Amino acid sequence: MIGYLTQVVRALAFVFIALLLCSIIFEFAGFSAPLMFQSIAEGAFMSARAWQNSLRWGLPLFLTALGVVISFRCGFFNIGAQGQFYMGAIAATFVVDGLNGQPAFIVVPLTFAAGILGGAVWAAWPGILRVRSGTDEVITTLMGNFIAGLLLIYVTSGPLKDPSGTGQAASSRPVGEMYRISAGNSLSPTIIVICVLVGVAMWVLVNRTSFGVLSSLAGRNPIMIVWQGAKLSRLGLVGFVIGGGLAGLAGTIEVLGPIGRLSSGMLPTHGFTAILIALVANLSVMATAFVAVFFGGLAAAGLYLPVLAGLPAAAIDIINAAIALFITARTWPKRLAGLLRVRQETS
Amino acid sequence: MDDTLIAILRSGTPLIYVTLAGVLAQRAGIWHLGLEGLMIIGACAAVVGTVQSGSVLVGLGIGIVLCVLASALLWFVIEKLRANPIIAGLGLTGLGLGGTDLAVQAIYGSQASVNAPFGMPRLGDAFGQYGVLSILVLFMPLAVASVWVLTRRTRWGLQLAACGEHPFAARSVGVNPARMRLAALCLGGVFCAIGGAELSMGSLQIFAYGMTAGRGFMAFAAVIFGAAHPVGATGASLFFAIVGALGIRAQLLFGERVPHDLLLALPYIATVIGVWISGKLRGGAKAAATFGELRDY
Amino acid sequence: MTSSSAPALACRDITVNFGDVTALSDVSVGFTEGLIHAVVGQNGAGKTTFARVAAGIVRPDSGAVEIEGQNVPLGNVGRARAAGIELVHQSFALPPSFTVAEAMEYGAEGGRSIYARGAMERRWTRHLEMLGVQVGPRERVRDLPVETQQAVEIARALVTDARILILDEPTAVLSPAGIDNLFARLKVMQENGVTIILILHKIREVLAVADTVTVLRGGKLVEGPIATDATDAAQLSASIIGTNVAGDISETDREALVGAAEESDTVEPIAAETEDTLAILDIRNVTTRQDAEGPALDKVALRVGRGEIVGVAGVEGNGQRTLVRALSHLADIVSGSIELSGTDVTRTPLSNRRANGLRVIPFERNSEGLSLSSALWENWAARTLLLGGSLKLINPAQLKKTCVDTLSRWGVRFSSPNQPAGSLSGGNAQKLILAREIDDDATLIIAAQPTRGLDVGATAFVWRALREARARGCGILLISSDLDELFDISDRIVVMLSGRINGEFSRPFHLADIGTAMTGAGR
Questions:
Q1: What's the pLDDT score for residue B274?
Q2: Chain C residues in contact with A229 (beta carbon < 8 A)
Q3: Residue ranges per domain, chain C?
Q4: Contacts of B117 (CB under 8 A, 6+ apart)
Q5: How far away is chain A from the Cα of C87, in angstroms, using its nearest Cα?
Q6: Which residues of B touch A306 (CB under 8 A)?
Q7: CATH number of the structural domain spanning residue B196
Q8: What are the structural domains, with CATH classification, of chain A?
Q9: Residues linked to residue C167 through DSSP beta bridges, in sequence order
Q10: Which member of B21, C123, C248, C428 lies 3.0 to 4.6 Å from B188 by CB, making a disulfide possible if both were Cys?
Q11: What value of ipTM does the predicted structure carry?
């Protein structure tokens, strides 16, 4: 229990340091830091409406972050959640657009299947390259993000283009009403149920199956688990693909749910935020749920800031980035760090 | 042909400068994913500094100072706080992207891009058709050569490599790996600032949000592809630039038949293939499982 | 001897704490100039820490280091080197990708800041020739055999004008002949006026080479420096082991632990049957594909019977690792076959081999044996969990309870099954591995360097565990670079050289014969 508590305190402490750095940047750029934080709090959590928005942005983030949790636990540094999210959304849109007119009970499940598959496939190729030829997955997944982003621009201005589109960003035709799983840009019970079910399933997978223990060992020390006779490639790849599938699921939910269509450049920081959530939650499934809502709040505030407070939305990106900078810190500077280092060496 | 070569040099030069920064970091044992952020800081500072002061040199200078400071911050976080270099690097990239956005909005209100009245000094008529290139293109081979000498022909370079490969070996001859990493990162910061300035002021004279578009990450991939050797990594980034330029040429040739956005993806795909091949060449199936953590011994 | 009154190197009241562990406490010792000094003690006695304090790599919490009466700043390698101290590490500290010349250059002083490759290589070739090291300047450190690597490391230490050379366990990786060569080389250096401090743990070697001996135990100075003429093996052995060792250790074990015996002629009672019974392990002419991790096996044939401990001797890097990897399905077998209890497993994955009773205690406790950042119970449960399907539901509470029971039975000292494996001491970590690998279903146990880095008590514990497993009928393949260990507990010894079996010996073992086989003179 003490262990958990110190972890929470540690995470909070470094988030605090990150916010301090943000204040310096805000003040440096000529914005009042207290005003900025106050507006963010208003946009995220200070009203029932704000809470609803936070959940609306937080739940898809929760799914993608769970995917990151699973792949990180397996020892795959999956930076590609963004690409997997896009590919899920693209695949889902192709199905829902292509089957337009068919009964919903056929189309919706197929769309979900396609979305999950899309994300999983986009995770599978870096995974296979990694286990087969030792190709570093950090670079491949990162490049995968850019490729998927360009593919998204291509399909929304090409094959899936909405001919009547007038907005500045290209997008697909809106998803038919009968296929939507939420009305308008908001939450729905369906989405909540999906998230709860997936959350419980992943909790069981991580904490109550052999896979959970073995994949965590593989993630922390792949060499050791190989000497125990595990098939590392299979163990890790499964986790990696599950991770991609979850990101794809999040993409599907955005298409069928709140956003209701595929649009180019949608949620460009979704994947990065999901990685942050996973790290702040210290790769625990339970904690991911809470942290996701917090970052969902920040995302909601990002929309609130320019519209209602007249402040730049970049503030949210900066907060996220500053948290990323500090969240993996393992120690405090000076003496303590020096002590730990000497100890590692001699043991 | 000349057009293509000019296009390659234009897109390749910023990439190569940033790649050199990545080479220095990688040799010191740091997976530098903050290159993208440093590059955009350099690009933004060059344009904004030039607009505000009326001097390109001041713009470049501000960029160098900011990039060195940001590099030092990254060093503090990964060396002193023992944060994961990959995630911290991504954080720095985010700070660069968000910070430049915020800075532009703070200074110019909500506008998407900033135009500079003039760009980097050009090579001039003496170079004929190539006169339109900035002088930083001319300095680029010089920079590559100096980094090569520094890393491959000086004792300091050997000590730097020792810090990356076997920090304990470095320490047992009295070299302080932490200090060497700081030096490598800060020197890299200078190169990133120059690369960013070349990107925004070399031919375009404009700064737009997110204009680096993953070039920093591509530079990192070039470092891996080129096995952290200055010349190898430069070759790899030239290769990416060539692929990009050929994509644009193909666009001109085929017009609408090949989708524009997919051609834009060519350098990224080339990067994946490049990293895949270099992994294969180096024995494969043994990727670092340490998530790029700094080593102490 | 020397007329100078101040010792070449003096340490005063050195205390070093790593967290809550005291590695050295109040150690004061002075070494006379121009002699060969030995510092001995069991693993964990603080020898390495002592050497590192003197060389400036570890900064002590208190104390002082003096060279010829002059204070040297603590924890500063540069200043210590400038004062003339150089340290050769136990596991060599040279970047593996460097060429020999680069490995000399990176630690050198003076000369030009930008070098030309040719000139630099010529300079260091001369240096190596002067020291009598036969190696090309362009060879990569990682490609060198261990003995050459050590010679290069010593040459590296002498690139500056070192007057005090400390060598940390230099003999641990060498063959008996290699040890003789090293000692001859050190004597030459001594004649040139270099003061040499050898960290050792074998009394035999101390008496063979050193002028004085200093004994450390549990981070404290026990005695010394005393002239080696004024002491003997029995007295040193008593100082090294001390009186508070858990469990009783037989006289032969004692001798093996401190390396005092010349050869083993006591016949260990062998659990009778070896010839007529079915072999537990039968390796037939196995050849492996060459890979980056060491020499390939070349037609290796080896048989381990029920209730037999077969020792594998050899200088490190002669294929022992490949042998263990081949047995664990981690190296490509080109030809030949491996049989486990009569079943051909040549193409069988490790998980199935493990299901057939194969157990492996791998070379590297901290990377191959344990996941240091994972919990004890996860490390312990890995083997059994891998026997079932991945999606099998588990009950962590139940697993932890069984884990606690088992670990307590094995005498592992721990506070909670949730603590990370990295928080255990070396001996306890090895016991955790033993608890996992030596179970009732085990039939063949591969023990690779199972006692490396362990203190006397833990070493004796491991030996006891292996003997008990033998008594139950397990076959045991013991790979070790410590000949004393092999002589003490093996029933048979095979010697590996360049990926081949270069000799097989049964009791009584003679150091001279086995030493010859290790260096290639043949059977």
A1: 84
A2: 328, 349-351, 353-354, 383, 386
A3: 9-246, 247-357+443-523, 367-440
A4: B50, B51, B54, B205
A5: 15
A6: 110
A7: 1.10.3470
A8: 57-310 (1.10.3470)
A9: C88, C198
A10: B21
A11: 0.87
